[in-house]
Design goal:
CATH class: Alpha Beta
Largest sheet: 8 strands, parallel
Structural class: alpha/beta
CATH superfamily: Metal-dependent hydrolases
Number of strands: 13
Number of helices: 13
Shape: globular
Radius of gyration: 20 Å
Number of domains: 1
Distance between the termini: 18 Å
CATH architecture: Alpha-Beta Barrel
Helix content: 25-40%
Bound molecules: manganese (II) ion
Strand order of the largest sheet: 1-7-8-9-10-11-12-13
């Protein structure tokens, strides 16, 4: 079986347990996100800045999980915590470069204290950039403190100086703060535009009401499927708000990727927005310089891992900005069966499309990453 090499638009770093105790004063470190798993491994409790969130672990979450072919897989791939071993995992799986989001750092969106958040983000980013310094195959995202615009702009500029090429945002702003379409955020979009950082929204990252259950929007019959779907919409909403508010008119080189939320939604949202823009023209404000779909086709990218319909977004719908993503090392991801997944997706797909989705879209976003050796 030929090895298919692919870049990943959706991977994760796993922060070491002592990251915050080593880098922050004890009074701050104690309030940063921390996960404690139940003895049976089925649930975990997240402690964040004096709040507690309960979350069911994916697929049981314990040791000795089995994949679809009965092989043992690990909750965390062997290289998840180690930048050197991680390269071996990537080579084995056929993943060349990866856009890497935080893991526990995703919970920073539930912090309520701006100073704690800013200090925590600096600690995460100072640690994460070491991966990129070790190998350009790692493209870490800078975690940005969004409780104040000033701290967000300061960390975007600091991250760019450190060498970051991408910034991670949750799909919705912190609770009680203006939404992405509001003027408040204009300096943030401007600083992303000026620094050239790609904006990465990872789905399922909405901030939570205090002491809630993570991701449990619905209960009862059908809840698991309904909740999974609900986490998907956040990225689409974030993109819709930016397009509708004219963010890409004012910042035409700003690039956005929505990670883990599938790909076929983008042509669909583009059609809906164009229809609204034409049919409801008298109430549309601000007027845009171009049709909404043009921003989605030029400024917006998305990553998927398993979706059968994702290739059709390119070949049938003409949307070129589809990236594959491994979600390494998470259980939803492809670790242990990446080549099988890639062959199922791409066998029989023409070379131009395959190359675009596996390597080209990512390379367009991150041109500093060297190409895969020996792959023409
Ligand atoms: Mn992911």
């Amino acid at each position: 079986m030929d090895k298919i090499w692919a870049n990943s638009g959706d991977s994760h770093l796993v922060e070491p347990d002592d990251l915050f105790t080593k880098s922050l004063p004890p009074s701050l470190a104690a309030r940063m996100p921390r996960s404690v798993k139940d003895d049976d491994g089925a649930w975990e409790t997240l402690y964040v800045d004096g709040q507690e969130f309960r979350r069911r672990m994916p697929r049981g979450g314990g040791a000795n999980l089995r994949d679809s072919e009965g092989r043992t897989v690990f909750e965390r791939a062997p290289g998840a915590n180690d930048m050197k071993r991680r390269i071996q995992d990537l080579d084995q799986e056929g993943i060349w470069a990866e856009l890497v989001y935080p893991s526990i750092g995703i919970w920073t969106s539930s912090i309520r204290d701006p100073e704690l958040l800013a200090a925590g983000c600096r600690a995460i980013n100072d640690w994460a950039i070491e991966f990129q310094r070790f190998s350009p195959r790692y493209v870490p995202t800078a975690t940005i403190p969004l409780l104040t615009v000033e701290s967000a702009v300061a960390e975007i500029e600091r991250a760019a100086d450190l060498g970051f090429k991408a910034a991670y945002f949750p799909v919705a702003p912190p609770l009680g703060i203006d939404d992405w379409n509001k003027e408040l955020w204009e300096p943030v979009w401007a600083s992303l535009h000026e620094t050239g950082l790609v904006l990465g929204y990872h789905i399922g990252t909405e901030p939570h009401e205090a002491d809630g259950f993570h991701g449990a929007y619905f209960r009862g019959r059908g809840g698991a499927l309904m909740n999974y779907m609900e986490t998907t919409y956040g990225g689409q909403r974030a993109v819709t708000k930016m397009v509708a508010a004219g963010v890409f008119d004012r910042h035409p080189n700003l690039k956005v990727i929505v990670s883990e939320g599938g790909a076929t939604w983008a042509p669909f949202v583009a059609d809906r927005l164009d229809e609204a823009y034409r049919q409801h023209a008298s109430s549309v404000r601000p007027k845009l310089e171009r049709l909404p779909s043009e921003y989605i086709y030029e400024n917006v990218y998305a990553s998927f891992q398993h979706d059968r319909s994702a290739i059709g977004a390119v070949t049938a719908m003409g949307w070129q900005n589809v990236c594959w993503g491994s979600d390494y090392p998470h259980l939803e991801g492809t670790y242990g069966h990446t080549q099988k997944t890639l062959h199922e997706l791409f066998d029989g797909v023409d070379d131009v499309t395959r190359r675009r989705v596996t390597l080209g879209s990512f390379a367009e976003l991150f041109p500093h990453v060297p190409p895969v050796p020996h792959v023409a």
